[in-house]
């Protein structure tokens, strides 16, 4: 049984397969490959894009979805998460998609090894399907030869599971990553190049991935308000000028704080392409875990 807690559980061949399947699914409507399969979503944090994307992906492949609202579940009555999960698994779903505020929750459930577990975002450590769809978006724009591509991640990096997953996957694929943020927004330990000013990297990168500013997560105030943050880190026309830099963002975008209105309408901005690609990548992930993984045996990384 294979799970997707983070992308390091995928072999290079599986990553290539996900990218190829996503491209095929985007080109033509697939057969209902997952007809008769049942997936349960368990989202302990709010989600618009990820949850909807998984639902659309599953339905396009013919699977059924059941959504469990944790606020109405027995976890509110004192039941442990593991017991809730075990009871759901007793109903014989084919997979569980979970989002949680704690980093280790998906891995704890995966270790129970009852059904495939897909991490839809956990804590500030991992959001593997977002990293995969970001990688696919880069492949689509730049072509398959992306080794040496220069990507800057800008914003509240220390609190971003997207940044953490992107960094691990991108570096594995030979992409050069640099970080741009005020020091309190930087991860405490990193061997990546770090910059405090956007202006220092504008002529040195091919891609900027902007992140949502999460000032509320910082105990000590860094900026007086979001407009003060935007003065330094918002991606604007004045900053971008005529450079051919691709702009990305995992969403939700805080307009004129993370990215300006004008840049969101600019052809160099891939934000809606990322959302669109997320459906096809998640279709490919579901196909891999629910159908293809059986062909690899229990440990595909060593076959």
Notable traits:
single chain; 303 residues; alpha/beta; Rossmann fold; 5-stranded parallel β-sheet; 4-stranded parallel β-sheet; 10 helices; 9 strands; globular; disordered C terminus
Set down the secondary structure blueprint.
Elements: H1 12-27, E1 38-43, H2 49-60, E2 64-68, H3 81-89, E3 95-100, H4 105-112, E4 117-122, H5 128-142, E5 150-154, H6 161-172, E6 176-180, E7 194-195, E8 207-210, H7 226-233, H8 237-240, E9 246-248, H9 261-264, H10 271-290
Parallel strand pairs: 1-2, 1-3, 3-4, 5-6, 5-8, 6-7, 8-9
Helix pairs in contact: 1-10, 2-10, 5-6, 5-10
What does this structure look like?
- Its EC number is 2.1.3.2.
- Helix 5 crosses helix 6 (161-172).
- By secondary structure, the protein is α/β, with parallel strands linked by helices.
- The model is unreliable at 296-303 (pLDDT under 50).
- It folds into 2 domains: 7-126 and 275-298, Rossmann fold; 128-273, Aspartate/ornithine carbamoyltransferase (Rossmann fold).
- The chain contains 10 helices and 9 strands.
Structure, briefly:
By secondary structure, the chain is an alpha/beta fold. It has helices at 12-27, 49-60, 81-89, 105-112, 128-142, 161-172, 226-233, 237-240, 261-264, 271-290, and strands spanning 38-43, 64-68, 95-100, 117-122, 150-154, 176-180, 194-195, 207-210, 246-248.
């Amino acid at each position: 049984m294979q799970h997707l807690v983070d992308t390091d559980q995928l072999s290079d061949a599986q990553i290539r397969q996900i990218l190829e399947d996503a491209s095929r699914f985007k080109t033509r409507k697939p057969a209902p490959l997952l007809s008769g399969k049942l997936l349960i979503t368990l989202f302990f944090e709010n989600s618009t894009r990820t949850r909807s994307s998984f639902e659309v992906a599953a339905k396009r492949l013919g699977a059924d979805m059941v959504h469990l609202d944790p606020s109405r579940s027995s976890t509110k009555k004192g039941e442990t998460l593991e017991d809730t999960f075990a009871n759901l698994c007793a109903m014989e779903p084919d997979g569980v998609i979970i989002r949680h505020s704690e980093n280790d929750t998906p891995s704890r459930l995966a270790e129970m090894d009852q059904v495939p577990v897909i991490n839809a975002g956990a804590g500030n450590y991992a959001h593997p399907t977002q990293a995969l769809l970001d990688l696919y978006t880069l492949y689509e724009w730049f072509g398959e030869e992306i080794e040496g591509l220069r990507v800057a991640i800008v914003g509240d990096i220390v609190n971003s599971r997207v940044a953490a997953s992107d960094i691990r996957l991108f570096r594995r694929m030979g992409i050069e990553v640099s970080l741009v943020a005020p020091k309190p927004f930087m991860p405490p330990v990193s061997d990546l190049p770090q910059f405090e000013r956007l202006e220092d990297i504008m002529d040195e990168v091919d891609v900027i991935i902007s992140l949502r500013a999460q000032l509320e997560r910082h105990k000590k105030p860094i900026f007086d308000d979001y407009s003060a943050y935007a003065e330094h880190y918002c991606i604007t026309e004045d900053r971008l000028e005529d450079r051919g830099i691709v702009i990305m963002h995992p969403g939700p975008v805080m307009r004129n704080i993370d990215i300006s209105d004008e840049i969101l309408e600019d052809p160099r901005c891939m934000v809606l392409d990322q959302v669109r690609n997320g459906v096809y990548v998640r279709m490919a992930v579901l196909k891999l875990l629910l159908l293809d993984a059986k062909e690899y045996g229990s440990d595909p990384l060593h076959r």
